[in-house]
Every structure is written in C-alpha cells, then in structure tokens.
Amino acid sequence: MSGEDWNTKYGVRRVRRDPPTLEEAIFAAMGITDDVESQAEIAASLMGLPIEQVQGEVRKASRAAARTTRVITGEQGSQRSVVVERRVSRRIVGNDKRI
Predict the structure, then answer these.
(1) Which structural domain range is residue 40 located in?
(2) What is this structure's pTM?
(3) Is residue 99 part of a domain?
(4) Which residues face 5 on adjacent strands?
(5) Is residue 79 domain-resident?
(6) What confidence tens digit (pLDDT) does each residue in 2-40 have?
(7) Inter-axis angle of helices 22-32 and 51-67, to 10 degrees?
(8) For residue 56, is it within any domain?
C-alpha cells in the first residue's frame, strides 16, 4: 500500500493531492505576513517553484490589495472598530399537539 492509497471496508481509496494555484498560495502568504519578500518565499515553497517566478505575481497582488484596503473613520478623523455579530434565533422544538 502506497502513501496515496489505503484499504477500507469498501475497498481501496485514493487521495488526490493537488498543489495550490499560484493565486491561492499568494493569498495564504498574504494572510501570514505583511512583508512582500516573505510572502514570495512562502508562496514559492507552497507551490514548489523558484522564488524568482513568484516575486512578480506577489508584488502585483500586494499592489491590488493595497488599493482595496478600506479604513472607517469617525468624527475628527479617528478610527473606530466595526463588530459584526451573528445572532442565533431560538426555535422551540417539541410536540405541539393541540386537540
């Protein structure tokens, strides 16, 4: 049995391993660090590519991300936090037998 296959009661199962796309690797690297060079290293290691091939795409992505950043300012130019909460509604579950 190889590292990709295993036996179950339903038969042999295989694992499909797809490397991340370049866009996915860059997105993951941007979530880990803000340093562009470190992002390029992380993305290159995730893809298994030389760093030179990834650096240009990381720079493009960081420029695009910088343009889409939004800051919410209040009165007098101060920043404020925005908190989004999900409110769970209660459902009454039971036997409602009316005669």
Answers:
(1) 5-70
(2) 0.53
(3) no
(4) 14
(5) no
(6) 457 888 899 988 877 777 888 999 989 988 988 999 999
(7) 70
(8) yes
